[in-house]
Structures are given as structure tokens and as C-alpha cells.
Amino acid sequence: GSQEELLRMRKNGEAGKKGEDHGNALSRKEATEELIGCMVHSEEEAYKLYCDYGHRIGFSVRKGKQSYFIGTRDIRTKDYYCSKEGLKYDEPVTEANFNRPDTRTNCKAMVRFRVDEKGRWTVIRFVPLHNHQLAKPGERHLLRSAKSFAVGKSGVIDPAESAESHAMNGSSDRTVGDISEPPGYTTRDCYNHDNVQNITLIGAGDSQSLVSYFKRRTNEEGMFYWDVQVDQEGRMTNFFFRDGKSRSDYDCFGDAVIFDTTYRTNKYSLICAPFVGVNHHWHNVVFGFAFLLDDSTASYVWLFKSFLESMGGRSPKSIFTDQDEAIMQAAEQVFPNTQHCFSYWHILKNAQSHLGTVNTSQAFQNMFMKCMQGCDTEMELQESWDAMLDEYKLQDNDWLNGLYKFHNRWCSVFNKDTFDGGINSSQWGEVSNNILTGVADESTSITRFALLLEKVVKTLRRNESEEDFRCSQTAPVRAIKHSTVLKQAAESYTHRMYKLFEAEFLDGCGATSCHENSCGGSLLRFEITMQGRGSKMWTVLLDTSTMEISCGCGKFERMGLLCSHALKAFSLQNVDMVPEKYILKRWTKDARRSMYNLSQEDSTQQECTEAELAYRNRAMQYAYNLALKSQELEEARKIFWDSLETGEKALEVFFEMRNLHAQSAKDASTREKKKKKKIPKGPSTKKAKQALASSSAAPVLTAQTNEQQFQSAQDANGNATIGRSYYYQVHINMYEMLSFLLAF
């Protein structure tokens, strides 16, 4: 029986996806054949063999049961399981295990070795199928059973090995990294900042040293973006830079941006201003850095324009800054459709220095926070503000008076519909602060500072990668085990966001009173009072026909997470599943994949992630090399650009027709009816045909002068932008096509 099973395994081994590149990625079929066909001579070698296989596929291994030769303690058979084998049985709840994630899924994947009389270990049983998500290539170094040995045959460069190799030889001849997967790493993530000692850190010429660093980064990473502003005398004054991964991060999480200008600790007291956002784990994600010589409106206008250009012209929904007149004017000019708010973190930090001992009073802090977050009307804000000033005799405090002039930028009454990703929530201050604290000192040159910032970004991305891995391999502990709402949330949200959702859900369960009234038709009105909140009442409207819900607190609009009041209303209507439109994709485990609308329906998708990664690497490198080859001649640039535009249009047609085919396949009866009747062509078909027709037309290309290629128009002060030659700008435009194209 075991021999027949072995033959069946060889015949039906797991095949890789069609089109997989066997020269760059080890397929599951090859790994399976190697496992089955290999013979080892000890228990340790057998364990290592299956661990090696597990690392290539994406799972951890644990040791299972064994049998012995009769009358001896010599092993006859030995089982090894996927680490997710079995289920977590009920156990006494302790402080240690209450929040421990559940890793078991009752996975049946396993291997059984038999030992013959000569001590040879061979596979006699093999179950290859897993019932859970496998680790992606960039996450497999985090697998527990993979940490005790080195992997020899991988189609993807190991991050640690890559960093060591780069540090030793300084080579820049490396494959351009994946722009979207795996989420924790890019080509620059493994760049050891100690390896750049060969960059000359000059004193008086430090700005030129920084530009040399930017050029080196650009040569090694095609999507690296940098910009420099010079004054009328040709002196470099302001700098902005970001890498390619920051661009893809912005595409996913650039709806809310924090712009922080409070850090000046470096050799020249330059403002180091990071652009920071919030990722799906509710952690910091960096979109770029700036070094500014001054804090004038002109400098901020230049910086915001450069940032906007580097992000493909897409403005954030909201931007949070310190209270600064120059920043306000620049933001209004460059981001006219973006809601500009003051960051609570900055306000509370400034309060410490402007209010003295008054700010140490908990009663004052409560009144101050009520003004910022606890008022429902402008009149209530005015009354609360006046009461606070009277109580603590602060009517003549210049800082508070100046702050109140712009109350529409910080009071929640005026920003209920502004998405902030939780940046201005009370919990955010507990998990985030200035990411540059302790990075540099007064003796740090700006080039060294840039290298240290690279290390900061590397750490943040490593943390995200580890969180992604934890979310894919473990399940959060649910406070109510059999709640379908919590089960749905645990499967969708990242662990951190699930805990925030669960807190709202449990808070909603504690409502002291709920009055339900019909507003006519399918519209219901709920008036909800919560425990421990006094007599304050929240109003929730629910349309039972469309399951659309809204609450006066505005939490979903601000943060993209349903509030306790809305969840209570759903509970009263026996809604056991949250409508999908109220599970914001940016907070889910698949936040990055959702950006490209990648489906999860094909289970073989995980099996070929190494091949996909290898494809993206090769495609990026190929396009980058073509851009370099064509940069010198205008005619060559036109040929290259024409080919990109033609390819983009062909892809649009392909996906348009693909979507049409999928739509028709979903409803066979409707399709048959359309065959019998003459129905006017729908907009989708028309759009596809228009794209087909336009793809053959030659695109119009406006030739640029050398002056236009190398610097932008001067601003009002005669300053100009230098540093990025034309082909650097081509990389930025290429990204908009490649980031979509390479996601498939």
C-alpha cells in the first residue's frame, strides 16, 4: 500500500503554475520530488530534510510520533508534521496564555520516514496539502524551524546573506527589488549602513557628498527619487528623497500623512522633516525625508511640490502638521483638496512648554482633551473652552489664544468627515512618537544622517514584515470565542486592528440603554447611552434594506473602523456579519494586495510566489536597463516611451476583456438572452474597443530642451530645482505602469 501511495505521490506531485521560471525559483514539484527521492541516515538528517522542504514551501515543522523495532528502542518509523497540525484544545486561562495567538489549524500535511535494517531513512508517506496560508518568500526566514539551518537552494536572495555580501564587496550589481511583495523588504532594506564608509563625509562639502549618495542610491535602485533646491547663488539649500518602496507604501497608505518639522539635531541645525503615515498594523510607515535650511513658506512650497511629484501627483486626503503659518500657507497652495489639521501629538507636546505647571493637572488635561475631541457642536466647544480658561485663569495666554484662532484645524467638531487613520486618536500617542528621537546628534553630518535614516526605515520595514508573518501564521485570541462578528473580524483585520475592533465591539455590548425608533420605510434610528459616560447620547441611523449605517460620533469616517454604537445597532438587529463595505481594506491582512485588486480565489497563487518575485525582479531590471540605454538620445527616449505606452494600452485592453469574460461567465442565463436579442453595446465593450483603436495610434511626445530636462522653472525667489536628470524622471513615470503591471 505504501509503495502505491509513493507512486501516486510521484505522479500527482504538486505542479507549479504555468509559466514558472525554473532557473530562478524552485517549484513545489521539484521540492517534492527531491524530498521523496532522498535517502538519509539519521533522525537529525530526516528532520533537516523536511525542514528544508518546509522552508522552500513556506511552513514550519514539528516532530511527531514514532514507532520502534520490536523489543528495541531503535526507530522504525518517524513522523514529522506541519507546525499547524492539530487544534488548540480548551485549557485553563492564565495571564500568560490569554493573549497568545492561536497557531493551530488542524493541518494534515506531514511526512513519514521508514528506517530499514541498514539504518537508511526513506519516505513512505507524504501528505503535501496545507489548509492555511503559506509564508511568502520574504517571510520564510522567520519560520521557527528554518532558523536552525542555512537554506541552500532558493530562487530568492536571502536578506542576511545579501547584506553581508554587499557589505564585503560594495557591489551595486544587484537585482532591483520587488515593489510590492514581500512587504517587509526592498533591495535597499538589506543595505548595511556601515558598508557606505567609502562615501566621503566632507565638512564644508557635505551637501555635495549627500548628492553623491543620492546618485549612488539611484544607480542601485531605479525607483529612488531625490530632489535638491538651490538659491540664486547656486548654493544647495533644501533636499528631498525617498526610495521606491516608499512610493508603493504611499500608494497603499498615503491617505493620511504626518509632516513633522520639530527635529533639528544635526551638524547644521537643518530641519529634518519626515513624511510619515500609518500602515495596516497601525504602525509608522515612512514616505520620504526632507532636509530644509529654513522654515519659510517658499521652502515648504518647493518641498510639497517635490513630494507630490514623487508620488505621481496624488495628494493625501489629510495632512497633519505642527501649528505653523508657513506650513499652512504652503499646504493650501500645493494641497488645495487636502484637509490640513494640527496633530494632537504636536499640540500636547507644545502645551508642555507653553502652559507650565498648569499642564500637569489631570483635571486641566481632561478639559483640554474635551475641547479637542469631546464636543459635538461649535457652541459646546466655545462653552468648554471658556470654562477651561476661566478655571485656570488662562485668558491672556498667547499660545492658547493663537491655537483657538485655528480651532477648525484641531477640534473634532469640524473634522468628523476627515479620514485620519487614527492619528488624532488618544491611543495613537501610546504607540507612536517622533521616529527620529535619538538618531543623530549635533555633530552628525547630513550625509551620515541620511545613512542613519536609511537604517530607521529598514527597522520599520522589518517590523512590518514580522507583523505580516505573524498575521498570516497565527490567529488572534477572541474574547468571545463563538461570535461570528469577531470571527469575521479576526479573519480580515491585522492583529492590531482586530484588537481595536474587538474593544469597540465589547464596549457596544455594555450600552446601558438603547431606544429604537422607526423613521419610516426601512430606516431605523437608535439612541444609545453607554456605561460610564454619563447621560451623553449617540444617534445611529440604520437602513435595513441596504445595511448602510452612520453614527454621530463619526469614528468610521475618521478612522475606517466601526464604532461601538454602530456595532450595538447591528447587534440589536441580529446582524451576525459586518457588511464588507465597513471593513476597510487598508486595515486588513491583504491591504497591499487589495491595492491591485488581486484575487485570492486561486489556491495555486501562493505556490508560485517565488516565481512571481523572480519575474518582477527581472522585469524591473530589464526596464531599468532600457531606460539607461535610451537616456542619451531624444529619439531613443521616444522609442522607449512609445513602447511603454503601447504596452500599457494593450494591458488595459487585456484586463478589460478579461473582466468582461468573467462577468459573462457569472450569469450564463443572461448571456444566452443577449445572444437572442440585439442589445446595444455596453460602455465596457465600447471602452475596450476605444482602447484597441487608440493603441495603434502614435502618442504625441513633446520634445524638451536641455534646460527643461535638468531643472524646473524658477520660483518667486529665483530658486531652482536641480539634480534629477531626465531619465530619473522617466523612472518615476515608469513606476505608475510597472507597479500595476508587475503585481500580476
TrEMBL record:
One Pfam entry name: SWIM
Residue numbers spanned by region Disordered: 1-26, 160-179, 665-691
TM region positions: none
Keyword terms, alphabetized: Metal-binding, Zinc, Zinc-finger
Name recorded for this polypeptide: SWIM-type domain-containing protein
SMART domains according to UniProt: ZnF_PMZ
Composition bias type Basic residues, residue spans: 672-689
Recorded GO MF terms: zinc ion binding
Biological source species: Aegilops tauschii subsp. strangulata (Goatgrass)
Ranges for domain SWIM-type: 538-574
